[in-house]
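Q: Make up one entry.
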Amino acid sequence: MSEYYNPRRSKSYNYGGKNWRLSRSKIDLFLECPKCFYIDNKLGTKRPPGYPFALNSAVDELLKKEFDVLRKNGETHKIIEKYNIDARPIYHECLNEWRDNFKGVSFYHPETGITVSGAIDDLWINSRGEYIVVDYKATSKNEEITVLDKDWQDGYKRQMEVYQWLLRRNDLSVSDMGYFVYCNGRTDLDKFDGKLEFDITLIPYEGSDKWVEDTIIQIRETLESDRVPQADPDCDFCNYRKVVGNLLKNKT
């Protein structure tokens, strides 16, 4: 069995189990395809994962170290100065926990009895004392990335809005304006020399978390039901299962 995928997950990690939480990624899965979400969280079999992006993780780790040095010294960052942003990295006693993928920022939602969680990348603050959610992204494209205008980037926006919602529920004053530190690996250089260089852009995004509350309620209603919800018509996974199921049925 692959080390990255175990279809026989422990029941304690399914809805109702002691280890189950509604993570930010699970919320996004529900919005992407309710059927896949239900099969994952209620029935206990999640989608096969993609391959881990080790380079992305390395960029994340190095950016955290870089901003932590500035945070410790009470300094700003050259990317913040370049874009003339009213912000600086800020220390918070819970930051390391909030960055931890197995902990993250969490909030018990009393109306549904669901604990919601998500791991942030960074936290800045502006001169008004508002905390700013910051997310790191790494890619390698031939175009300059200055805006989030692709359909698949809508998930990035929802991600930030969930983080803003979670921090507000933890009694922080949070700015609607968040930032993506976007690192784009360069392929236009003459040689490699054992290092990968990046162009770094800072992309602002003004979020709105008004949709989060209703979505959590919809998620609980879905999970409490014994009916498997309809698949999203554009879900590749559900379309694959349907086609393969019909093929196998015709073979018997």
Summary: The beta strands are 22-23, 88-89, 105-109, 114-118, 122-125, 131-139, 177-185, 198-206. The longest strand covers residues 131-139. The chain has eight helices and eight strands. The mean pLDDT is 93.
